[in-house]
Write a structure and sequence with these properties.
Layout lengths: L7 H15 L9 H13 L2 H12 L6 E3 H14 L6 H4 L3 H4 L6 E3 H8 L3 H8 L6
Antiparallel strand pairs: 1-2
Helix pairs in contact: 1-3, 1-4, 3-7
């Protein structure tokens, strides 16, 4: 069985970000261990572990910070994957709400602090809890 996405050209951008988040050593390859660890965290990790993984998805250059440009790029890729190619800025979370100290970047602590208090975000991770 072959699974396809109706938005093949749009899925490559999102796939790039997921690949980079799974490639923890930034080697350009994903080992089976990398893949299983990422899958395990997303599916069965604690909320904190899942949020740390999500942070790594948005921290495109792996410098420990999410910039507005990184947030916009990943959010854009997600909405393109879903077939919504409208203005990505309209979909982008209010990054100033996440940037608690207003220094222009979002740290992992700011990200976890904000996301762990957002009911919609917590519920989106909880969807995996009862799969098996």
């Amino acid at each position: 069985m072959i699974l396809t996405c109706s938005h093949d050209e749009d899925s490559s951008h999102y796939a790039h970000y997921v690949f980079a988040a799974l490639d923890q050593e930034q080697s350009g390859t994903i080992t089976f261990r990398d893949f299983m660890l990422g899958l395990s965290i997303v599916m069965k990790g604690t909320l904190q572990e899942r949020l740390r993984w999500a942070f790594s998805l948005y921290d495109v250059n792996h410098d420990g910070y999410i910039t507005k440009a990184e947030m916009l790029a990943v959010t854009s890729a997600i909405y393109n994957l879903l077939g919504d190619s409208g203005n990505a800025a309209d979909h982008c979370p209010q990054s100033h709400k996440l940037d608690l100290n207003n220094d222009g970047v979002i740290t992992i602590d700011e990200f976890i602090n904000y996301c762990s208090k957002d009911e919609n975000i917590c519920n989106s991770f909880a969807i995996f809890d009862d799969l098996w």
